[in-house]
């Protein structure tokens, strides 16, 4: 349940804190005092839409924080969950769940199992058709739930087999298509007869060919310089040192060093001459190298950045081809298991369908009785069970809640009900029947009493009171008959200070609650209205 709600800078609300309780929480008060703003704040904390126009005039942000007591929730700390949402004028949102940053969608998903808001313009859980089958199954009870659990175990294995077959190319057409592709790629790589580092060597050769003139020119200069200048100069130096080598060891040593250099330069000169001679090719050879490089680069674009990677990919191709060609035996076993599962699943699905259709009629009748109590005598709701072609987690059924609100009108989906007050009463009728199995603990109603009074108002109050035995109910109301049912009554008022309007809220004592019921009932607090209020209170 929501134990504390903190609202800041929303509309005329500057900063208020409300402590809610289990059971039936009723909000009443002056027109325009901010009652609906409190529902808006709850909608915001539930991940609903927010308009920057809602931010209090003169402020830069709005802030809503709720403390929720939900001990069974895995996110709770000592049974409590703190959620908050802060929205700024520039559109920036900051959502947190127990101090952890979350997106608006994450907040919405988290809160949808905690609170359910029923107001004139809200989206309700009951309007989500995907949840209709859950409501019906919960209403049907243990027999169907047991069957559903038995079915789901088979369904999980059924899904696993489908995944395995897809991975194993269980579909014959897919298998042949994949084999064709793999064999094509393998043939393309095999025919290329690649060698490791082949591309590097070819690229070197190609670079030489492209720069042959420059290479020859410079190698010729080096060759000429070494042969005609360097060697001749060193030879002359050797002869000079030989003439003085007998005058000391140091001259002998330098002579020896210089002779070594002479032999090395001679060797170098021969190598340069050979390199110069090697730079010769024809255009046919150049075209052949370029064609081979193009072939290698084409393979690289498809299968890997290097020849090594392409050869590794070739290995994978060979392995996968081998697996596919030998997978038939495994797939045949899987297909046989799948067929057996389908038979078992279909048997359970047929049983679930029979139960669902029976319980759908029962649920429809109960909801329609509730709608009659709520002064919707001409409304007929029908829980429809349709068959679907493919197995899903719920079997082979789809469930929809359809309604005709007036005689002669065609059935519509719940979401297409036009009147907000009408919608709220339909929701209330459904919630009353499903109160024991509804998984959402806190139910919030805004303007559920729109367009009703008298007997209908009394019936609405009784339904809300009944629901509050199993759920926390928070409601904004203008009807005395509903306010009189409250376990906890809150009064919302406003005051003006320094040309600014402020919302105030306080929980009423029993005496103050009687006076508020009298005010709502008669528009004024008189002895007669007080007595009437006491009678309404006793009847609660």
Task: Explain the layout of strands and helices.
Elements: E1 2-10, E2 13-19, E3 24-29, H1 35-45, E4 61-69, E5 80-88, E6 93-97, E7 100-102, H2 104-111, E8 115-118, H3 129-140, H4 142-167, H5 172-192, H6 198-210, H7 212-244, H8 249-278, H9 283-303, H10 307-325, H11 328-373, E9 380-392, E10 395-404, E11 412-413, H12 420-434, E12 442-446, H13 454-467, E13 472-476, H14 480-483, E14 488-497, E15 500-507, H15 510-522, H16 527-539
Parallel strand pairs: 3-13, 3-14, 8-12, 12-13
Antiparallel strand pairs: 1-2, 1-4, 4-5, 5-6, 6-7, 9-10, 10-11, 14-15
Helix pairs in contact: 3-11, 4-11, 5-10, 6-9, 7-8, 9-10, 11-12, 12-13, 15-16
Structure characterization notes:
By secondary structure, the protein is of the alpha/beta class. Helices cover 55% and strands 19% of the residues. It contains 16 helices and 15 strands. Helix 7 (212-244) runs antiparallel to helix 8. The protein is elongated. The chain starts with a strand and ends with a helix.
């Amino acid at each position: 349940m929501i134990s504390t709600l903190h609202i800041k800078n929303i509309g005329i609300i500057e900063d208020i804190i409300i402590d809610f309780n289990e059971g039936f929480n009723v909000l009443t008060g002056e027109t325009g005092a901010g009652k609906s703003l409190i529902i808006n704040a709850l909608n915001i904390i539930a991940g609903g839409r927010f308009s920057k126009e809602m931010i209090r005039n003169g402020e830069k942000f709005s802030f809503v924080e709720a403390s929720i007591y939900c001990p069974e929730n895995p996110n709770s700390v000592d049974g409590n969950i703190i959620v908050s949402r802060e929205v700024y004028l520039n559109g920036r949102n900051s959502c947190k769940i127990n101090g952890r940053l979350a997106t608006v969608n994450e907040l919405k998903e988290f809160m949808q199992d905690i609170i359910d808001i029923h107001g004139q313009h809200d989206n309700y859980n009951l309007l989500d058709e995907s949840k209709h089958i859950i409501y019906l199954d919960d209403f049907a009870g243990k027999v169907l739930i047991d069957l559903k659990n038995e079915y789901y175990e088979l369904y999980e294995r059924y899904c696993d087999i489908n995944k395995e077959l897809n991975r194993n190319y269980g579909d014959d057409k897919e298998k042949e298509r994949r084999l064709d592709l793999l064999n094509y790629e393998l043939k393309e790589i095999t025919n290329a007869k690649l060698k490791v580092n082949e591309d590097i060597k070819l690229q070197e050769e190609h670079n030489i060919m492209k720069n042959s003139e420059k290479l020859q020119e410079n190698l010729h200069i080096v060759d000429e310089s070494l042969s005609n200048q360097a060697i001749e100069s060193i030879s002359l130096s050797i002869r000079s040192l030989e003439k003085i080598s007998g005058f000391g060891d140091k001259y002998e040593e330098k002579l020896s060093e210089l002779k070594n250099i002479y032999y090395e330069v001679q060797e170098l000169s021969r190598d340069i001459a050979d390199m110069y001679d090697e730079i010769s090719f024809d255009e046919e050879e150049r075209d052949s190298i370029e064609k081979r490089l193009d072939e290698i680069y084409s393979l690289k674009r498809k299968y890997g950045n290097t020849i090594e990677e392409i050869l590794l990919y070739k290995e994978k191709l060979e392995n996968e081809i081998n697996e596919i060609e030998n997978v038939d035996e495994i797939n045949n076993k899987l297909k046989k298991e799948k067929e057996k599962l389908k038979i078992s699943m279909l048997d359970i699905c047929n049983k679930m369908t029979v139960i669902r259709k029976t319980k759908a009629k029962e649920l429809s009748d109960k909801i329609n009785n509730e709608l009659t109590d709520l002064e919707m005598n001409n409304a007929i709701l029908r829980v429809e069970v349709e068959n679907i072609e493919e197995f899903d987690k719920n079997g082979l059924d789809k469930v929809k809640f359809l309604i005709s609100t007036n005689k002669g009108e065609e059935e519509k989906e719940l979401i297409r009900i036009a009147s907000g007050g009408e919608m709220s009463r339909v929701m209330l009728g459904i919630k009353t029947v499903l109160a024991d199995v509804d998984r959402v603990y806190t139910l919030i109603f805004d303007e559920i009493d729109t367009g009703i009074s008298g007997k209908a108002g009394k019936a609405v109050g009784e339904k809300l009171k009944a629901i509050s035995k199993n759920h926390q109910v928070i409601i904004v109301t203008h009807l005395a008959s509903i306010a009189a049912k409250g376990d906890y009554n809150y009064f919302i008022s406003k005051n003006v200070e320094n040309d600014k309007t402020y919302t105030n809220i306080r929980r009423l004592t029993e005496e103050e609650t009687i006076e508020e019921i009298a005010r709502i009932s008669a528009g004024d607090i008189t002895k007669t209205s007080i007595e009437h209020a006491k009678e309404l209170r006793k009847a609660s």
